[in-house]
Amino acid sequence: MARATRKIEILHAASKIVSERGIFNLTLEATAIEAGVSKGGLLYHFPSKEALVKGMVDHLAENYRVKIATSVAESSKEKGKWIRSYADVTFKNTYPNKEMHAGLLAAKAVNSDLLDPIRDLYNEWQTEIENDGIDPVKATIIRLATDGIWLSELFDIHRLSEERKEEVYVKLKKWIDE
Amino acid sequence: MARATRKIEILHAASKIVSERGIFNLTLEATAIEAGVSKGGLLYHFPSKEALVKGMVDHLAENYRVKIATSVAESSKEKGKWIRSYADVTFKNTYPNKEMHAGLLAAKAVNSDLLDPIRDLYNEWQTEIENDGIDPVKATIIRLATDGIWLSELFDIHRLSEERKEEVYVKLKKWIDE
DNA sequence: GAATAAAAACCGTCCAGGTAGTATAGTGAA
DNA sequence: TTCACTATACTACCTGGACGGTTTTTATTC
Asked: How confident is the model at residue A1 (pLDDT cuts 50, 70, 90)?
């Protein structure tokens, strides 16, 4: 193998294009150029545009899953491990979010079914969150609030100031422990 | 004027296409057919695709603004009018949400600047919500949770059951009054 | 360790099909 | 006469994907 990372470089390139130039500019040729590969080379790894977008979603779903799982595993608390990890990862990590945004938008545009891995992920988490020792309704509200941050970043809408975001984070965490 | 509603019919048609068939199927011709208008007729009202999408966003922003404003005006409470209205409208109305989804996705795809009317709207609301007599951090969390519902509906991801959604709604409302 | 074979990882061009936007001629209603 | 369209034709452009090469890696044998 030339580089085990070639496929992943292509996925990053695709995400970058979606983030910076929008979905309509996610063409095979543009992706190939951004990734520094020929169009034929790209098609070798991803035989269609849909396959490319599927690759994006699958990759980021897996990434996110590992991220949360690691955080849960490292937690020393007994109750609310999952919701705490979910909030931590989403509030504190900027990296996977941007790729997540691009992947979500691309999948929604190309073929909604491609979102299935994300759906599975969220369903799993919801189950864990609801059975983690704290009031499920409270836990759900915290999850929703965390998702709200997401929405605002996804569309660059009513972005909170860093201070307010931090205050929200602190209050949510405190609420988990109550 | 033949019908004052022609332009709006076209906007509904465009939203419908985005919702049902995705952004890539929002072509001028498809929109014309869906609206029962000729392509020339469509271009008479919206001289370009971007103008069409701008029309979608402007229209729904205005709609949403009126909806919230009406709810606020009807409120008999003294404190937390805005956050209460925001939660009510978003939780209880399915109509404007779907159009909102389509508009957001279309604008994000075509040209992010088209989202500006929505940004303005959200900034206004955030200001109102933070100065409505209740703890601004609490109010922000409630707004974020409400937006979280949105995100889940937008991508059809981890949709809550109606019961859980209702429980969340009830708990949030109770929290406002605390 | 050199030679060789085969598989993997690419490259670059071509084309059919689709799309935004233009143009133009015409129609019915107010 | 103007407004609010209809209907059709046309163009210039772009894109996905097919296809037929070519180079680089890896595995195998001598």
From this structure: very low
